[in-house]
Write a structure and sequence with these properties.
Elements lengths: L1 H29 L4
């Protein structure tokens, strides 16, 4: 259970990091810097 939980946590954190980075890039490209 330990290895499975660790891999699952790693996968979730990676997907959250990717979606967060994509959201930042989309927002930055959508709105020009002040």
């Amino acid at each position: 259970m330990g290895d499975l939980g660790a891999s699952l946590y790693q996968r979730i954190s990676d997907s959250m990091f990717l979606s967060f980075g994509i959201a930042i890039l989309q927002g930055r490209s959508a709105s020009p810097p002040a």
